[in-house]
């Protein structure tokens, strides 16, 4: 018979049996915090140079090539340790590090997206009204429209002229560049506007970007504001108004990535959903040498509007890339996919103490508590989601714990508050085990989002140990 004093006390039982919800920051060494801070200097540079998906691909290709990656050739057989990339229309990117066992036991996939909410130009955007020249926009992705007025905007994208030549624009990011903005009503005259709900206060058709206010005068003395804008654009870029028809031009916030807080523990920037995860998995791919299973990194487009189109993951380009790898090894792609695993690297909502009613505190993720895992996303009754199987979640939590990766798990918010999806459901549709893993974000989809440097670094660590896992 056991003696009474041999029984564990409540503290011992709690440590053994209960989830420890204290701030995980306290379990991280000072050396790791310093590594996180240093890692995020490169992260801020990536954000600065990647305001659109085109720019993100260009930046990622440069980083990959510097690390030894070369363009993928489907007719070539690769050996363990080879590094290749596939650039899909300059809007999405796949990188692969060939494993010692190739695809035989499946591949390890990390998939993030590099498109972000923004304001795209309409095909015929330029107009003048009441002595001002403006450009009409069509917002892309889920935004709060009122957040996009009265902030500095920069102009990014590509104009494809009728003669087949291309003009790449990046205006408003360098010292001395002009900036742009969208006007809003002064509070003295906005009594009617203030009565509207937040989603109606600013209408989509009023997200017009102010681009000029000086006219060209004709012989009759008439002032032509629109013409003056086109005159300046033609002189600098050689374009005409019709060239807007074949252009991918976006306006993004002109904010530069910066440290937030007296302790500089946070990063403030536009586009951290989901370029925070994109950078983490890109750097994990760069640092991966010769894995056992081929490690595949995906930087996808179009996630913010449902992953549609030939650069989104609801298309075949990832499947086809893996099929090319499988064919080169004499394998059937369906057998490779059935054995494959994926971390859908997308951000999650960090608990915001200013709006606690939108969250369920016990099932939320928190800044500075590590990479956030979501067993499922979706909306309300788990619509439009992939619900990871318990076996795969167990495998990933064990992998993280064994490699000292600080992690947490939670949901996007309260069940009936709304919801959102990721690319997980499209990869799961290829018969791949997948779970969402990413950086918690404050003010998600706002023109200026906030993340934790520690969480960004832990997401990188999560991707790296996943690529190296057997």
Automatic annotation (TrEMBL):
GO terms for cellular component: cytoplasm. It comes from the Bacteria. One of its GO terms (biological process) is proteolysis. The keyword Hydrolase applies. InterPro entries: Peptidase_M18, Peptidase_M18_dom2. SUPFAM superfamilies: Aminopeptidase/glucanase lid domain (SSF101821), Zn-dependent exopeptidases (SSF53187). GO terms for molecular function: aminopeptidase activity; metallopeptidase activity; zinc ion binding. Its EC number is 3.4.11.-. Its cofactor is Zn(2+). Keywords: Aminopeptidase, Hydrolase, Metal-binding, Metalloprotease, Protease, Zinc. Pfam families: Peptidase_M18. The keyword Protease applies. Belongs to the peptidase M18 family. This is M18 family aminopeptidase. It comes from Caproicibacterium amylolyticum.
